[in-house]
Amino acid sequence: MAELRELLETSGLQNLRTYIQSVNVIFNASNQNSSQLEKQIKKAIMEYFSFDVSVLVKTPKEIQSILENAPFSDKKPEQIYFTLLSQIPDPNLVQELRKINYPNEGFIITDYCVYGYSLIGFGRAKCSNNFFERKLKVSSTSRNYNTMMKLLSLSKEIEVNG
User: Which class for 13: exposed (0-12), middle (13-18), buried (19 or more C-beta within 10 A)?
Assistant: First the structure.
């Protein structure tokens, strides 16, 4: 994570903070275009580490909106997860996916997020990040409720303290 932080700082990002080892990076940037930032970060990682990874940039407002619109308020926070999508999935694939139903799991698909819950734990859920990537044919990343809350908190902290 330290190497990644150094790389991104030399790429022009400021006030970098990382959160846990799942490559959550919070930063300020003079460029506010998320798509351009994603390409810039992806390119820097590929050139330095030789890893071809998906990069997803979300603003504090986007994270806030995702959390505010989260369904499943009847579930415990540790049962809720968010699969953030890199692009709007094909509506036909979404319709097909909505037909799938597993016991103790549920999900709601929006344009840029799949809201999900698992009563058996996300690590054992059939509706995993890989499941949604395969079925929707888009890159994604999943985070649990507590991680999303922490990312929002850290991003607001950086926004204020810059």
Answer: buried
Q: How far apart are CA 104 and CA 117, in angstroms?
A: 8
H or E element: which one contains 108?
A: strand 105-109
Q: How far is CA 114 from the centre of its chain?
A: 10
Q: How far apart are CA 29 and CA 49, in angstroms?
A: 22
pTM value surpassing 0.85: yes
Which structure tokens are listed for 137?
Answer: 């044919």
Quote the tokens at residue 14.
């400021």
3-state SS class at 83: strand
Q: For the segment 38-62, what is each residue's pLDDT rounded down to a tens digit?
A: 999 999 999 999 999 989 999 999 9
pLDDT 10s digits, 88-102: 999 999 999 999 999
CA-based nearest residue to 8, from 54, 60, 49: 49
Q: CB within 8 A of 52, min separation 6: which ones?
A: 42, 46
Would you state the structure tokens that stand for residue 93, as one six-digit string? 């694939």
Q: Given the structure tokens 């990076």, which residue do they identify?
A: 25
Range 61-149 has CATH code 3.30.70: yes
Those residues whose C-beta lies under 8 Å from the C-beta of residue 141, and which sit 6 or more positions away, are 54, 56, 83, 84, 129
